[in-house]
């Protein structure tokens, strides 16, 4: 049966990098039905909402969804529940993609573009498994209220249940088995009860079902340090939505290859995955042909592998990116001069 | 009037590094009344509590409190409200030290011990102003509850009021005026209402009273990246308790000089300050004479400056540390071979 892919180019450099994915899909001649919808600021401009019910429904009934990027200064004044980010959070939540896989991998050809010394990042290969549909991003009560005397009070709630923790930890343990078999779990169990529950549930699941995997625990502040001090000590890292947001971005930047890094968000087996580059919408360089399409293209490769049943095509795309890079093809962010389209062409030529 | 300093050596390497401060105080021959009390695991062992009411009262009526470090695996099994960290949080809260100043400064003699290339960290001088007595560290409701079906639920509450935000932002703006006059405020206003309130209150205070200071805003995940990419872009950073915990530790590690970094926590004018090295209790090297006493000694210098009215002595201590380092005195963590005591002796000799 023909699989379906929904593209959500979004804002800023999103349409440009997704454009290169479209050209690549054409060149691969795969049996995939590709559709497209408005998302983020682009959807606000057209409909007043960052994502419509119809787009959410299409996403949930596709086999995979590939996003570009959302947001930008143009939509900063939107009401809180109508800003571009609210659309992204709604999509993640309704798709139920609770495990966000964020590889921080250093490409050999790019090891010198890191601010870290080469020996600290060469060969770096960390896989973050970030919880994506819970925690302080979604907890209630939340909001800003007037409390009199010219004072306001802003509240958010960090909340996790046992099963929310276990399902994402399970994903981390399973993935570790196919890698170096080590999982490090990060929380602030020394100051937050939600973090203590996190640690206890991860420990219990490990003992019951994954004793063959090496499990360690690290306080999130210490991990923020250890990622700088000696990033290669890590294999798989599992952590909550908010810590995962900060720590995976920190790790991504260590590689010096931000424009290269893809991500996948997956839920229950058989449900569609949500794929997106790690980089943001980069409004400062949007529309100028300067963006690096590799992260979007590698996110598409993850979609091919995890959601579209096209492992061979995923291998081909990843090999083509490697080959293009090794051959010297580089956009500006990684020290080269190629435009977005020229980089896409170099990858297609390397297929 | 004779000023008073309460020493809380605490656990792990705490007593060793505070020991060097005591020797230094002796050498300085200052008119300061020095007392000492149990804290953290050491207090648990003696009294069952990480800090007693009496110690809290003595801290609040001193002019300054200098801590070593708290915690360690020995006390990991303590009830949640009796663990060493609970004592530290209680002390911070009862002392009302809402502004935690954490300099991330790269010592010229140590620029090569960073994992970052020299050009990214040489001359680095960031001052974090972390909110220390609010946010998710203290918010209620909090706890772990059974919700049936073998499931538990862990909850914490992130909460800030206008005045809690304004008073710490004020400290940041004031300090910026004595430095490069730039403040960057970090939050996740795009997903958390408490972060949106943070941003709005900082902006309003800036407009009303500190328009001469340059103010920028950055999402906390982006800051986690920018600190790696180009740390020298920052001067003063103001952020909440939890983001400050992670981001200031990340920044501290960039310097390659963790064992060198002091911190100060201050509240209302005239109230005592709480001083502590950035590093932890390091149970793995405790009791072996391997710890670097510089962070504790420089924290003592901050106490001299901010709480004890001994500016000249503070200058002398800081100059002595610089001189000792430049003369090649180094403990193991910064590439040397000196013991804790030998390093202390080198600094006293350089006075
Ligand atoms: C855009 C924003 C809502 C989002 C997040 O905070 O999750 C982004 O930072 C990310 O990491 O994908
Ligand atoms: C020990 C712990 C409670 C503390 C914190 O989280 O604030 C520490 O990490 C710090 O930064 O001083």
TrEMBL record, chains A, B:
It is found in: Cytoplasm. Substrate binds at residues 92, 102, 130, 221. Its EC number is 1.1.1.85. The record marks 137, 188 as: Important for catalysis. Residues 4-347 form the Isopropylmalate dehydrogenase-like domain. It catalyses: (2R,3S)-3-isopropylmalate + NAD(+) = 4-methyl-2-oxopentanoate + CO2 + NADH. One of its GO terms (molecular function) is NAD binding. Coiled coil: none annotated. Pathway: Amino-acid biosynthesis; L-leucine biosynthesis; L-leucine from 3-methyl-2-oxobutanoate: step 3/4. Mg(2+) binds at residues 221, 245, 249. InterPro entries: IsoCit/isopropylmalate_DH_CS (IPR019818), IsoPropMal-DH-like_dom (IPR024084), Isopropylmalate_DH (IPR004429). HAMAP family: LeuB_type1. Belongs to the isocitrate and isopropylmalate dehydrogenases family. LeuB type 1 subfamily. Homodimer. NCBIfam families: leuB. This is 3-isopropylmalate dehydrogenase.
């Amino acid at each position: 049966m023909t699989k379906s892919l929904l593209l959500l180019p979004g804002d800023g450099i999103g349409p440009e990098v997704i454009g290169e994915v479209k050209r690549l899909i054409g060149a691969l001649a795969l049996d995939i039905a590709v559709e497209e919808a408005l998302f983020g600021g682009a959807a606000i401009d057209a409909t007043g909402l960052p994502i419509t019910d119809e787009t959410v429904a299409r996403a949930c009934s596709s086999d995979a969804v590939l996003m570009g990027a959302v947001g930008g200064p143009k939509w900063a004044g939107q009401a809180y529940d109508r800003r571009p980010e609210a659309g992204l959070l709604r999509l993640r939540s309704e798709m139920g993609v609770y495990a966000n896989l964020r590889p921080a991998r250093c490409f050999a050809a790019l090891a010198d573009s890191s601010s870290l010394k080469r020996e600290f990042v060469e060969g770096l290969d960390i896989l973050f498994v970030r919880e994506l549909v819970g925690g302080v991003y979604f907890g209630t009560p939340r909001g800003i209220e007037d409390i009199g005397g010219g004072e306001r009070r802003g509240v958010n709630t960090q909340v996790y249940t046992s099963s929310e923790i276990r399902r994402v930890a399970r994903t981390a343990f399973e993935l570790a088995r196919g890698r170096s078999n080590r999982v490090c779990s990060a929380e602030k169990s020394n100051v937050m009860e939600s973090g203590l529950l996190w640690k206890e549930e991860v420990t219990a699941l490990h003992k019951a079902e994954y004793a063959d995997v090496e499990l360690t625990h690290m306080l999130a502040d210490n991990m923020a340090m250890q990622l700088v001090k000696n990033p290669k000590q890590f294999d798989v890292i599992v952590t909550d939505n908010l810590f995962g947001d900060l720590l995976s971005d920190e790790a991504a930047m260590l590689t010096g290859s931000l424009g290269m890094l893809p991500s996948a968000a997956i839920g229950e087996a058989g449900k569609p995955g949500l794929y997106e580059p790690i980089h943001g919408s980069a409004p400062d360089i949007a529309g100028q042909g300067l963006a690096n399409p590799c992260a979007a293209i590698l996110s598409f490769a993850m979609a091919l592998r995890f959601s579209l049943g096209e492992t061979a095509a995923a291998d081909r795309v990843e090999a083509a990116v490697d080959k293009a890079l090794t051959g010297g093809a580089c956009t500006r962010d990684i020290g080269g001069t190629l435009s977005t389209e020229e980089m896409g062409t170099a990858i297609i030529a390397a297929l």
